[in-house]
Amino acid sequence: MRVFYLCYADLHKPLGGTRHIIEVVQHLAGLGHSIDLFAQGPAPDGLFSDRVRVHVVRTPSIRIVGWVLFYIKSAFAIWSEGRRNRPDVIYVREMVYNLFPGLASRALRAPLFIEVNGPILDEMRMVGSGWFELWLIKTTQRFSLRSADCVVAVAEGLADQLVDLYGIDRRRIVVIPNGTDPDLLQPGEEAESQRSLGMEPGPIVGFLGSCYPYHDIDTLITAAPAILEGCPNARFLIVGDGYMRASWMERTEREGLAAHFVFTGQTPYEEIARHINAFTVGIALFAQESHQKMNRSPMKLYDYMACGRSTIATDLIGLGDVVRDYNAGLTIPPNDAPALAEAALTLLTDRRLSAEMGRCARQAAVSYFNWGRVAEDIVRGIEERTKA
Questions:
Q1: Is the Cα dihedral 296, 297, 300, 302 positive or negative?
Q2: What is the reported pTM?
Q3: Which domains does the chain have, with CATH numbers?
Q4: Which of 123, 197, 241, 277 could join 193 in a cystine, given CB atoms 3.0 to 4.6 angstroms apart?
Q5: What percentage of the chain exceeds 70 in pLDDT?
C-alpha cells in the first residue's frame, strides 16, 4: 500500500505530536508499506527506512501566514506527486484551518483519512482564543472532517464529540488509541535515575508533557502542601515546556513551594525514560472540560506504563478507565486537590502497591499500548474502509 502522509511538524523535535507521527510512519513502513511523508522540513539522517520518502514543504515561520502557505503548497505537492505515483490513501494528521486535503483527495481519486488527536476547541479556549477564532476553527474543522472518507479518533469520547459537534456519521469514525515504545522506555531503578539527574533519592511525583492549561498542574500545586504534610521529603518533577511553565513556576515561588518543585524544561526524547524512572508515581491530570463525553488518550500515560510507573489520572473516559482496567494506578475527579493528595500519599507511602501497579502497567504497554499495534490498527481501518 502507498500512503501519502501529511503533517505540519518539525521532524527534528520528536516530542508530542511529532513523535506520534514519526512512530506511526516508522511502523507503517515496518509493515511493508510505502510512505510519502509531506512535512515542513527534512528528517534527521537515518530516522526512516528507504520505504519512507520525505517531501519538504518549506514555508516561512510566521504563525498564520506560514500555516496557510503550508496548506496550499502541501496540497499542490500531494497533487503533483500523486499524478506520477497515485496513492492508495491520503492520511492527514489534522491541521486547524486546512481545507485543501479534501480537494487533493478528490483530484487524485484517493480516499482521505484525517486523524484527530484531541479536543482542539477546548484546548484553544483554554489558551485564550476569542470567539472569532473558535468559530473559524469549528467551521473549517466541520468542512475538513466531513470531506474525509474516514476520521481516526484516538478515543471513544472524542469520536462522540466529533459526532455531536459536526454531525459526522459515527460509522465513518474509527477509534485507535495512542501508544508508546516499550523497547526504548523500559523500567529503571528509581534512586539511580534520580542521582543521574542530580537529585537526592526520595519520593517524587512526576509529570511529563507540554505545559498547557489542560494539563492540570495547578491542581498539583494546590495539593502539594497536603502531600508534603504527609510525606515531608516528597518532591515534584515537571518535565516539559510550553505556555504555562513560567506561570506554574511563579505560583510555586509565590506560595513558598519552589524548593519542592523542579521544572526541567524541554527534554530530548532519548532522555524521557531516565526522567520517568526518577518518578515514584506519574500524573496524567486534565482540567475539567466543557464536553462531559470528552476523553483522552495521552501518550504520557503509556510512557509511564512502559517504564513500570504507577499513575494518578483524571477520571475521564479513555484515561481513567485504562488505569482502572489494567490496575495501573489510581483515578481522581477533575480539579480535585484533596483527592490528588490522598492518592499521591497512598502511592508514595505504599511502595508495594505502587510497584505492583507499575508491573501491571508495564505488561499492558508491552502487550497492547504500543506503536506496532497502532500501525496495525491504522492499516486494518484503511483496508476495511477502502474495500467497503
A1: positive
A2: 0.91
A3: 2-179+370-387 (3.40.50.2000), 190-367 (3.40.50.2000)
A4: 277
A5: 97
